[in-house]
Design brief:
Layout: H1 8-13, E1 15-21, E2 24-30, H2 44-58, E3 71-80, E4 88-98, E5 102-110, E6 116-126
Antiparallel strand pairs: 1-2, 2-4, 3-6, 4-5, 5-6
Length: about 140
């Protein structure tokens, strides 16, 4: 079963949201030739996109589909620990701490055998219902 995540870029890339619940999200991506770099392994940008999306979704779940929150990424660090050229990548995002406007998530990206390939750490800013970031949380705000 594929869950609705409202992230068209993930659809275009071929990633699917296979699990989404309170404080976690799991994305999966079948590796295809267009995901590879010139060395023949998955491009680092693919890992970064998966870390960004799984971390962002981990803090936005609601039991009511119409009430899912949305967020912006404030910062993202991705550490590359291994590589893969085939099979599937699984990115599991976990909420670490939530404030009123900002939350923090960790993502582990593994391959088919469970080998840890990358780790991501991100901070995210909740969007207001109208789509804007909280004005008093933006850089340069009074």
């Amino acid at each position: 079963m594929t869950l609705d995540h409202e992230v068209p870029f993930l659809d275009w890339m071929g990633a699917t949201l296979v699990e989404w619940g309170p404080e976690h999200a799991l994305l999966s991506l079948a590796i295809t030739p267009q995901h590879l770099n010139r060395s023949g392994v998955v491009h680092g940008g693919i890992y970064a996109v998966l870390a960004d999306a799984a971390g962002g979704l981990a803090g936005c779940y609601s039991h009511h589909p119409a009430a899912h929150r949305k967020s912006y990424t404030l910062s993202l660090t991705t550490s590359f620990l291994g590589s893969s050229a085939q099979g599937r990548l699984n990115a599991r995002g976990s909420l670490r701490r939530r404030g009123r406007r900002v939350y923090f998530a960790t993502v582990e990206i593994t391959g088919d055998t469970g080998e840890l390939l990358a780790v991501g750490e991100g901070s995210f800013l909740y969007r207001t219902p109208g789509g804007a970031a909280h004005a008093d949380s933006l850089p340069g705000a009074p």
